[in-house]
Amino acid sequence: MAKKTAAKSPSRPAKTSRRKAKAGEQAPQGAARHSLVIVESPKKAKSINKFLGHRYVVKASMGHVRDLPKRKLGLDVTSGYAPSYEIVPAKKETVGELKREAARADSVYLATDPDREGEAIAWHLQQALELSERRVRRVTFHEITERAVREAFGRAGPINMDLVAAQQARRFLDRFVGYQLSPLLWSKVARNLSAGRVQSVAVRLIVDREREIRAFVSEEYWKITATLSPEGATEPSDRFEAALAEYGGVKFEAHTEADAQKIRDELASARYVVSRIDETEKLDKADPPFKTSTLQQQAAIRLRYSGKRTMKVAQELYEGIDVDGSGPTGLITYMRTDSLRVSEEAVHGVRDLIKASYGEKYLPPKPIRYAAGKNAQEAHEAIRPTDLKLSPEKIKGHLSHDQFRLYQLIYWRFVASQMAPAVFTVTDVAITAGSGLFKAQGKILMFDGHKRIWPPGGKQDDELLPPLSVGQTLDLLDL
Question: Which residues are catalytic?
Fold first, then answer.
């Protein structure tokens, strides 16, 4: 029967016992020699098992197997906040099965996700299964492909106790805030409300913004826009709009309808003349590959997916899909990341694809490197496809509707991130009319660059102006 235990400090390695080995610590004599691999989910287990062969048995823990007790704080505030962990009741049978498997194995590889939560799950498994450090190896990989998995097993090492401590700090804060504030909400506001380390701060931000909105004093303002065309022109394509930017030599502002109408009446009888034309070339650089937050943002905008739905589908793509009948293979790298870093191998691969598919002019002279955010941990790569040969269209028949749409977004965003910038010619036109100065802008796409493929199905509309010249008189069609 699983027992409640006081957690060992994550800052000190557990001692290796020299006593007679328990069931979880040494393979019994005469047993078949193999290694046990433990991951979080059955789907991930199936994907990894495909690459490892008969000397490995892969089992799933189904997530966390130990946690703080559900009905009390579980932290000793008088003794350095030492935690008391217990086996999650629903996982007692799983822990028992894993103990039996570990007893039959020479060594145990903990291949949980490559982040703080995954590291903590690995440590809790070691503690719950009562495994000595000499029998446990930690394995991390950022994509579930044969190459990545085999390389990861080749560099297996110890559990990273710094990451475990980081996860514990976050878990302890969750418990402290929730257990201290939730009862206060029940007594002061309403029953069944909850407070938390993240949601309480989010509520504060929402309340602050709502107060700003309510305190905002709206101010009336008016704009004046002219519809113009070259003098004598009659084609609809010759029409364009210009906005009043200055009046009387200063920035135009009208805060009442009467003020705007007075200026409009004067401009209605003015002569409109092109006074300046400026043409500039502008580059539109590609967006970087996705990280977790930008994937969720774009999936919400383009696919109307919630954050939860996006991460669920991304998890499915990461853990593996069978696209060729040989078993599941991970289609994307790990989806919980704040990094924009891309491996050299992946960069070379996508540059080869761009050159072969679109030609030299779509390929920048050098690979594009994206700067990390200020607080980025850079522990992982950006979210990208693991195999560029598996284009969305090629494997569409093996994916669900949601999987295909999200994979398409990830795939083409990554390819576009290494393509040449789009080039626009931007034309700025200044037009004088009495005391007023109107401005208009046109934009013509000269080279599509990364916009050829991103966004998927996107349409690039030029913002055209008719042929104009300085000193040319314009007809006022509407004001």
Answer: 334
